[in-house]
Amino acid sequence: MNIIEVKHKNRILAIIFKHSLKSGGVRFLTPNEYTLQLGLLEHPAGTIVRDHAHNHKIHYNVDTTQEFIYLESGQVLVKIFTDNFKLVKKVKLCPGDFILHIAGGHGFEILEKCRMIEVKQGPYPGDKLAKIFKDSI
Question: Which of 15, 41, 80, 129 has the smallest CB count inside 10 Å?
């Protein structure tokens, strides 16, 4: 299984993409309404992607934080929770796997020294404003 949707009561909390996932070109993996658009691009040598700039005059209304994690190396156990920290699923991530956190909560257990790349909306206001920790409720 290359794509794992983690749901609770028909609400998608996270989508895990295994490193073996193929796109066959350009494939967007998220619905248009998500605040982070995740695409997988695979091109053969010699492909030319036209030079371009992005239209910076477009403004987006973002009412939720989504978080993308790419596991470059190591192994990590990701725990996915509901908003009330009810555990829904645990999934082991291996090098090259990536996950999009859409809703609910999450935590990580580092199984093997790792390097992760994280992307989310900014600017980041710091943990005190941006996060609700399980042990503080």
Answer: 129
Domains and CATH numbers, the chain: 3-43+64-136 (2.60.120)
Report d(CA 91, CA 77) in Å as an integer. 6
Kindly report, residue by residue over 74-115, the tens digit of the pLDDT. 999 999 999 999 999 999 999 999 999 999 999 999 999 999
Instruction: Report the 10 Å Cβ neighbour count for 14.
Output: 25
Position 30: which residue type? T
CA distance 96 to 40: 12
Report how far residue 66's alpha carbon sits from residue 48's, in angstroms, rounded to the nearest whole number: 31
Q: What percent of the chain has pLDDT over 70?
A: 93
- Strands 3-8, 11-17: pairing is antiparallel
